[in-house]
Amino acid sequence: MTTKELELFALDIRTEIVKAIAKKGGGHIGGSLTIADLLAVLYGNVMRYDPKVPDWEGRDFLISSKGHAGPALYAALALKGFFPMEWLQKLNIEGTTLPGHCDRLKVPGIDATTGSLGQGASIAAGIALGLKKQHKDGQYVYCITGDGESAEGQVWEAAAFAGHFHLSNLIFFLDWNKKQIDGTNDEVMSLMDPMKKYSAFGWYTMCVNGADVSEIENAISYAKHNCGGRPIFIALDVVKGSGVPCIEEVENNHCIGVPPALAEKALSQLEEHRRKLVEE
Ligand SMILES: Cc1ncc(C[n+]2csc(CCOP(=O)(O)OP(=O)(O)O)c2C)c(N)n1
């Protein structure tokens, strides 16, 4: 996909996130919107997958260790044809096939059930080691972690494990939006310098603008060629609620009610962005 196509794809993902969460009346909107650009790049140009055979053995794996970002992954998967778009309108509603948190057993294309923070990081490292042991070169494991999630010790056990086993087929992204559930990282638990921390565990590290699809795509490609056998860590510098100004400006936008008026405003801001992009 071209850069503009990726940007439009990211807009589609954001639109579906807003619509699905608004239908339920609220949900984890802040940390779902932040990863829309990353998902557009991964599903648009980077990952190998087959929507008709979601558990294809030759696929790349994607695990959102911050399981509450389910709505973002579901939007990308539906847009890529893993399941019907209509499913999105039943997000988190009783009897749904799409629970709010990522669910491997219910949702085609989801590679790990997550929600208990920290666990996805270990699952991703384990899959990467498994692929390496089977000499499945060229298959990658991508894992999305949260900055609040990074207070979990399990994240750092996984980091040490991946560094020790030189898992160069493993790429961690950090949704570095500086906020978590109860406030900012610096108020709750400072993350300090995540690049220095991962580097100390033996990882190749980078930091990019997480709202820029080209920067993300270039970073992935550059890191794969330059990691020198190390696992890869890419911090995505973003604003929580990224890409939708009326959600960005809600101070605590981790999990909020999205009444029709707010949804309408969010959708019209996305539509305005789309109009400008198409005119460019
Ligand atoms: C082990 C565990 N402890 C606590 C929670 C409750 N919880 C859900 S989301 C969240 C904050 C996560 O913050 P962050 O990783 O920064 O997510 P984001 O801002 O990207 O949404 C917490 C504490 C949980 N899901 N799992």
Tell me briefly what this model is.
This protein has 280 residues and is of the alpha/beta class. The protein has helices spanning 3-24, 30-33, 36-46, 70-79, 119-133, 153-164, 185-188, 194-200, 213-226, 245-248, 260-279, and strands spanning 26-27, 61-64, 141-146, 170-176, 204-209, 232-237, 256-257. The chain has a single domain (3-279), classed as Rossmann fold (3-Layer(aba) Sandwich), CATH 3.40.50.
- Structural class, please? alpha/beta
Task: Provide mean pLDDT, rounded.
Answer: 98
Helix content: 40-55%
Q: What's the number of extended β-strand segments?
A: 7
Q: CATH homologous superfamily, by name?
A: Thiamin diphosphate (ThDP)-binding fold, Pyr/PP domains
In the CATH hierarchy, the architecture is: 3-Layer(aba) Sandwich
Query: Count of helices?
Result: 11
Largest sheet: 5 strands, parallel
| Amount of beta strand | 5-15%
Assembly level: single chain
